Amino acid sequence: MSESKHTLGKWEVMGGGSSSRTILTTDNEVKQKHVAFVYSKHPVEVMEANARLIAAAPVTKQQRDDLLEACSVAEKMIRMVSHPDIGNRNLPGWAVKVLDVLDEAIAKAGAS
């Protein structure tokens, strides 16, 4: 999997009055880094929700790796209940859909 280009770490929303919010991250748990400003002519509640959505986006490399591993294990376990010669025909419909979602997520993450 390729290394992320965005600022890693936990992002937090800091206040900024009625028209803006600042997204910050902590570098080495001491120094805060500016990540983004959110400006809006929308009501404060909409701007705050937008800022929280942006701040929730990043995950650490370890979190990504853990999630990818969990997807890979789940995909393998579901496939284990299916006989290789039969394919997915003996799986319930929900399991086939789960496999499709897992396969797509694993492919997007660049794993095989």
Account of the 3D structure:
The protein is α+β, with helices and mostly antiparallel strands. It folds into two domains: about 10-55; about 60-110, no CATH class. Helices cover about 45% and strands about 20% of the residues. The protein contains three helices and three strands, in the order βββααα. It has helices spanning about 45-55, 60-80, 95-110, and strands at about 10-15, 20-25, 30-40. The chain has a three-stranded antiparallel beta sheet with strand order 1-2-3, with helices on one face. A hairpin with a 3-residue loop joins strand 2 and strand 3. Helix 2 (about 60-80) packs antiparallel against helix 3 (about 95-110). The mean pLDDT is about 75.
Q: Which residues sit in consecutive blocks of at least 5 with pLDDT less than 50?
A: none
Specify the helix fraction band.
40-55%
Strand content: 15-25%
Q: What gyration radius follows from the Cα positions, in whole Å?
A: 20 Å
Structural class: alpha+beta
* H and E string: EEEHHH
How many discrete structural domains?
A: 2
- Distance N to C terminus: 10 Å
- Silhouette: elongated
Biggest sheet character: 3 strands, antiparallel
Count every helix, treating DSSP H or I runs of 4 or more residues as helices: 3
**Mean pLDDT score:** 76
Number of DSSP strands?
3
Instruction: Name the strands of the widest sheet in spatial order.
Output: 1-2-3
